[in-house]
TrEMBL record:
The keyword Magnesium does not apply. Its main location: membrane. This is MFS transporter. The lineage of its organism: Bacteria, Bacillati, Bacillota, Clostridia, Eubacteriales. CDD domains: MFS_NepI_like (cd17324). It is found in: Cell membrane. Gene3D superfamilies: MFS general substrate transporter like domains. GO terms for molecular function: transmembrane transporter activity. One of its GO terms (cellular component) is plasma membrane. It comes from Desulfitobacterium metallireducens DSM 15288. The chain crosses the membrane at residues 21-39, 59-77, 89-109, 115-134, 146-171, 177-195, 229-248, 260-277, 289-306, 312-329, 350-370, 376-395. Residues 19-401 form the Major facilitator superfamily (MFS) profile domain. It is a multi-pass membrane protein.
Length: 401
């Protein structure tokens, strides 16, 4: 049987304190790096026009980015239990800089697709930062700390759409990826300066053993299985919506360009600003209760989008509730997952987040298909269906969990 990893030496140091400044640096790092995955969404129409390809072909950009991200988490995040965390994070940032430059200079759609996959594969820094923050936090503050880091992450997702929409409109989509590479250089220097060195004490366990232990965790942890599936379905619905929104806004009654489509990312900031309260609720109540309520909000958001999405007020309200629901559920789910095995947070996070972004890739692909076949109503019904599957998984969990 695989031997468990000991807690990192930094966590065992009584002199170490997870300060507010460090939490903020981690939140900035999570948000700035995860943004790389979402710059493409408001720019898909511009990319399609540049390479003269169909919406279904250009939709591969979002899908391949998320598939790459899921695979990157599967292969790289377990290294967080084996390697010094700061060095691992900065090495991955160096790799993502190269991938972003490949996006900026892609001469054709095939190279753009490959570069998009590479961006996803190497942009796994947030999923090293989140379990590190949870590990360093006091047990009674885990929900609050995870909530703050996840708020930074979600703000990065939402602001990425706004920033890329504006930059794409004025300077073109290639400029966005050049600027993103510059952001990552700055972030590399920032995290290299502020992140503490965190060496794992036990170097005897090997990478193959860690990878095999992922399967063991899935088999022996039913809460991990169900929570991961729930998260994957919710994020699938989230990705389904945001991948197709730019196509919806391009047509009547809106007829908006990429710069306006990006502005809708700011609407979701309202939901992200409320989401940290989900972490506090998860500390005081059961995370399962918070996750179920958040999934209910997500289902309601798709109802509003389906019935009233043709009206600006309905679209805005639906986006606020969608982001609030998905983000709150994510915080509650991760708080629950991290509590299962304190000495295996990175491996637990690997299982959860691979499933999470696997659901996101499925949602992106499904969204493009539903938009092409049935338009906006097909998108909304697809989103509701994924949320219903998430609620079924939530209902199958025992209340005592």
């Amino acid at each position: 049987m695989n031997q468990p990893l000991k807690q990192d030496s930094l966590e065992n140091s009584s002199s170490f304190e997870l300060t507010t400044v460090l939490i903020r640096v981690m939140a900035i790092g999570a948000g700035a790096s995860v943004a790389n995955l979402y710059y493409n969404q408001p720019l898909l129409v511009d990319m399609a026009q540049a390479f003269q390809v169909s919406p279904s072909r250009i939709g591969n950009i979002s899908m391949l980015t998320q598939i790459g991200y899921a695979l990157g988490m599967f292969f790289f995040i377990p290294l967080g239990d084996l390697r010094e965390r700061r060095k691992l994070i900065t090495s991955l940032l160096g790799a993502v800089i190269l991938a972003l430059l490949a996006m900026a200079f892609a001469p054709n759609i095939t190279i753009l697709e490959l570069a998009s996959f590479a961006v996803g594969l190497t942009t796994v820094v947030p999923q090293l930062i989140v379990p590190l923050a949870a590990q360093l936090a006091k047990p009674k503050e885990q929900g609050r700390v995870v909530g703050l880091i996840m708020s930074g992450l979600f703000l990065g997702i939402l602001l990425a759409r706004f920033v890329s929409g504006i930059i794409g409109h004025f300077w073109g989509w290639r400029a966005m990826y050049l600027i993103a590479a510059g952001f990552m250089i700055i972030l590399l220097l920032l995290l290299r300066t502020y992140l503490p060195k965190c060496d794992p004490e036990n170097s005897q366990i090997t990478y193959p053993q860690v990878m095999r232990s992922l399967g063991q965790l899935i088999l022996i942890q039913p809460i991990l299985r169900k929570t991961s599936f729930m998260g994957g379905m919710l994020f699938g619905a989230f990705s389904l919506f945001w991948t197709t929104l730019v196509f919806f806004l391009k047509h009547p009654p809106y007829s908006y360009g990429s710069e306006i489509a990006g502005l809708f990312g700011l609407v979701g900031v309202v939901g992200a600003s409320i989401a940290p309260f989900a972490g506090r609720l998860a500390d005081k109540n059961t995370p399962r209760f918070v996750a179920g309520g958040a999934a209910g909000i997500t289902l309601f958001s798709f109802m509003i989008l389906g019935f009233f999405g043709q009206h600006l007020w309905g679209l805005i309200l639906g986006i606020i509730l969608l982001d609030l629901g998905v983000q709150s559920a994510q915080i509650a789910n991760q708080t629950q997952v991290y509590s299962l095995l304190p000495n295996a947070k990175n491996r637990l996070n690997t299982v959860y987040m691979v499933t999470y972004f696997g659901g996101g890739a499925l949602g992106s692909a499904l969204g493009v298909y539903l938009w092409s076949a049935w338009g906006w109503q097909g998108v909304c019904w697809g989103g509701m269906s994924m949320v219903i599957f998430a609620l079924i998984a939530w209902g199958s969990m025992k209340k005592k969990s």
